[in-house]
Amino acid sequence: MTVATEPQLRFVSGTHHREPSTLSSTEPITVCVQAADPLSRAGAVAQLRPRPEVRLLSSEESNPGVLLLVTDAVDDDVQVQLRRTQRTSETRTVLVATAIDGQQLLNAGQCGIGGIIRRADATPEHLVEVVTSVARGHAHLPGDLLAHFLSEFTRVQHEVLAPRGLYATRLSPREREVLRRLAEGQNTAQIAESMSFSVRTIKNTLQKVIIRYQLPNRTAAVAFAMKEGLI
Hints:
Layout: E1 29-35, H1 38-48, E2 54-57, E3 66-71, H2 76-88, E4 92-97, H3 102-110, E5 115-118, H4 124-135, H5 143-161, H6 173-183, H7 188-195, H8 199-212, H9 218-227
Parallel strand pairs: 1-2, 1-3, 3-4, 4-5
């Protein structure tokens, strides 16, 4: 499969820091749609074209706010596209995939994805919601995929790292618990209620981790903590 080249956001990179977006809340988000086949692209364009929140760009126009990449799976060609985008642009990428397994999730994360949507969930409302969130510097990952991410890194920590004395504990117990619950799909309000803290306390806890490790957003903080065996 060949996918045209265009740009993107760092999903799990812990070494890059992005300043908060200055995008106006009323300014349409520029979006370029790319796909493995014309029919898939036409379908995504048809869903987004009537939406006032976005302004579609042609593939010839440069520097879209978000690249919406529609594909069946995260194969080698898609990974090359994502890495090239990550290296050459600040454009943020949302991936719409027919199916994505655990290894493909890890590959996508390493290539700097800003958001992932399953094609079955890609309604016009959900597309716009995720595109808007990613354009403003946040990230999106379905809750069950975050849970898988957590499970996989927990397994590596216990089976590979811990026996070699490589377990790291650079997070406070509260930070670890907040990130663990976030990885399981809970939102800020749910975490605050379940841990008997205020929403502000939970947000401050997350912000401290993001600043400490120079991460772009809370999803990157979860991925970083799991990758490092911290949760």
